[in-house]
Amino acid sequence: MSESPVLGIYESTFAPSDKTDAVVIVGEKKLHVNKALLSYHSDYIKMLFNISSSEKSPPEILIEDVNFEHFATVLSLIQCNPIEINKCDVENLLELAEQFELPLSKFQLELYLIGSGMMKTDKIRLADKFGLNELFSQSLPTSRDDYMNQYTTSVGQQLSPNFTFFKTLSKKTTVRLFHQLVKIKQGHCMGATIYKPKSIYESTYAQSDKTDAILVVEGRKLHVNKAVLSYHSDYFNTLFNGDFKEQTTHEIQMEFDEMDHKRNAEKILELADRFLLLPSVKRTLEQFIISSAIGYFMKFRIADKYNLEELLTKQMEYYFHNFHICNGLIAFPFYENMSDDTKVKLFNHMLKYA
């Protein structure tokens, strides 16, 4: 009996399932997608579905002149099973996110860049090119040397203004860098601020032609799309489509315990776990936590608790370089409850410093 062929990451991410009802064709390859989800996140792709003359079932649309792997990666960023981002491809992915009007994919890529180890000049260039304001704020120079090129002469290392780089930037970005330099020279620069999402709950969940239900949380209304929420959460799929009173109720009351705002990121992970949303929000929250002001021991605990592999790896690479740090971790009461898998990974990492 022959074994079934092993699917590649792109084919398995977009394999047909009970959540897919449409097909996007790129070259000779097919991506099975959820039409409502894709149409909600991209007006461009929604238009393609609306003008498609295909009478096939499931409906199909053709995407031409794009790199299949890049397009599949960008598309996956709105799903609950995103493909891992390759740093070398980020600029191409951002171009596709803009071309196909996928703001959520663009936001995911911005979060990735904020938490990455890419050079500041590269981050500033991408922030300028694609209008990534949070990335720019996180990448602002913090010293005079950040504005300079370093080169070697017969008398040693010399610095000169990086005119070549600054000439590639827009006037708006150059002016912001000028104002930052003035702050640095006057001793008023405190460095880049820690990334904190703006308070935009009302605007994010405002009523629109894409919303068809309301979640009421602590007396405040969140206008949502049933199909999108059902795609991301089996909990809400059952709530909206099961044999419950909520199926015919336009407003649904959501009950929560009082939130500790000092632990927002972890609390959101707990709520995501409770409402079966963790796969969908995991990537976004992981990137936020990586770039947040949460202490590195706490980040380590959260990474272990919610199996956040990238967060765990970054904490080990950035902070765990000596056994004094390890001893500090072991002294925390939560260490006893951490998984053996995490402890083994830490052991293998620390062998390099033994």
UniProtKB/TrEMBL annotation:
Residues 20-87, 211-271 form the BTB domain. This is BTB domain-containing protein. InterPro entries: BTB/POZ_dom, SKP1/BTB/POZ_sf. SMART domains: BTB (SM00225). Pfam families: BTB. It comes from the Eukaryota. CDD domains: BTB_POZ_ZBTB_KLHL-like (cd18186). PANTHER family: BTB DOMAIN-CONTAINING PROTEIN-RELATED (PTHR22744:SF14), HELIX LOOP HELIX PROTEIN 21-RELATED (PTHR22744). Gene3D superfamilies: Potassium Channel Kv1.1, Chain A. It comes from Caenorhabditis remanei.
